[in-house]
């Protein structure tokens, strides 16, 4: 389950693993980490930083798209070990602290276990610590709107639905959107590939998730870095439209 790191634009690194993705943005020796994998991937996150010639002590900020365990699994560790602040959208703070729960339940998983791919995904999730009751002790509410002052200067854009405070990150000067789980290109539990929403049972509010595809489609970019699946090269607006069409009558 090792990860693979690719530089897809100047100072923008896409770290792909079978189960989830994270992104590294650099400015000199300084690093922004966007999402942090499962708890069992902590060494992979650190190694991915070293693989691009940086030191984890150079992490200036950890940004979170949303507070599901596969995206915050190393966040508290990075904060405790390297002193990096963990930033989330103000609308995601309560979820990050686990004051509320906006996640697929064990019953959601069990009721879908018959679907192709769900059982292998669930087994790997358990192996990576995905059943841990894990949150972020002291998340920082990021300033919005506008570009953040960390390496890469990403612009956070609220795209709710998967969770209430799900946030994507736009790098307009590089034509990149980092979409988390608001728009993906593949998942072990999905029978299709290419731009899509996650299966419906993963979303806290499916209607809002579908509407957020319109938000994504308004961003000027031709590279999509999803939270699951491969990189999408091409119009992000068209990718968002494809995902919306695939969701069909559920919208």
Automatic annotation (TrEMBL):
Matching Pfam families: Lactamase_B
Domain of life, per lineage: Bacteria
Taxonomy of the source species: Bacteria, Bacillati, Actinomycetota, Actinomycetes, Mycobacteriales
All copies of domain Metallo-beta-lactamase, residue ranges: 19-228
Signal peptide positions on this chain: none
Gene3D superfamilies reported for this sequence: Ribonuclease Z/Hydroxyacylglutathione hydrolase-like
Family annotation (SUPFAM superfamilies): Metallo-hydrolase/oxidoreductase
Protein known as: MBL fold metallo-hydrolase
